[in-house]
Design brief:
5 helices; alpha+beta
């Protein structure tokens, strides 16, 4: 894990880009909160500008200390744009969890309870072999902790076809909404159900591949899910 010298308790410093224009009270810069939101997610959305137009791509990611890693094909234009010898690629990366549907008496006040993180910065391609290997392991373990040591590492052909981007967690903010509907006082007597519908993430029982050797038992890290 890279040593940034930044203590876990130190908050991220707000910037012009990380202070929201609406609902500022929901913004947070707590480092532990940001890390917990990132660590719980699977998919991020990576935004950048290509040929003068915005592009947003969903992709897997992994966090190692104060860095995020994403991967893709070496033939991908955005990954080529983020080469180590270039200025890098200006990006905005987001992760969001929806925790509940908030149903108000009025259509206007319907909402969701959520936790989100927005990261601004410059993504750069990782070319150093040891960091690339560590990043690829982190991407696998982010989805299922312990999986990287229980699978075949990428071979030379696969590594040659895979590019890894690094994005430092410098310009970061979280935003959270909790609680119930914010109905207007004059709507309190309206005959409409109001409240929260919680959304809960869960795991089903693992389903073995058709060609799996029956002698291979379900690993503990999967059984523990």
């Amino acid at each position: 894990m890279p040593d940034t010298g930044m203590p876990e308790t130190a908050p991220y410093e707000p910037t012009v880009r990380t202070v929201p224009t609406r609902s500022r009270a929901r913004a947070a810069y707590d480092r532990k909160l940001v890390h917990s939101i990132l660590d719980e997610g699977y998919v991020c959305h990576l935004g950048f500008v290509r040929d003068g137009a915005p592009v947003v791509l969903p992709t897997l990611y992994g966090r190692v200390g104060e860095r995020l890693y994403v991967h893709g094909s070496t033939g991908s234009r955005p990954l080529r744009m983020a080469g180590e010898q270039d200025p890098g690629l200006a990006v905005c990366l987001t992760v969001t969890h929806v925790d509940g549907l908030v149903l108000a008496r009025s259509a206007f006040h319907h909402s969701i309870n959520y936790r989100s993180v927005v990261v601004h910065g410059t993504a750069r391609q990782v070319t150093e072999p040891a960091e690339r290997s560590m990043a690829l392991d982190a991407l696998v373990d982010h989805v299922v902790p312990g999986r990287s040591s229980d699978s075949r590492p990428a071979n030379e052909k696969e590594l040659a076809a895979t590019a890894v981007l690094r994005l430092d967690l410098d310009e970061v903010s979280a935003k959270v909404r909790t609680g119930g509907p914010n109905d207007e006082p004059e709507d309190a007597a309206l005959p409409h159900w109001t409240g929260i519908v919680p959304l809960v993430r869960g795991y089903g029982a693992p389903v073995a591949a058709d060609d799996l050797d029956p002698a291979i038992a379900l690993p503990d890290y999967l059984a523990g899910l």
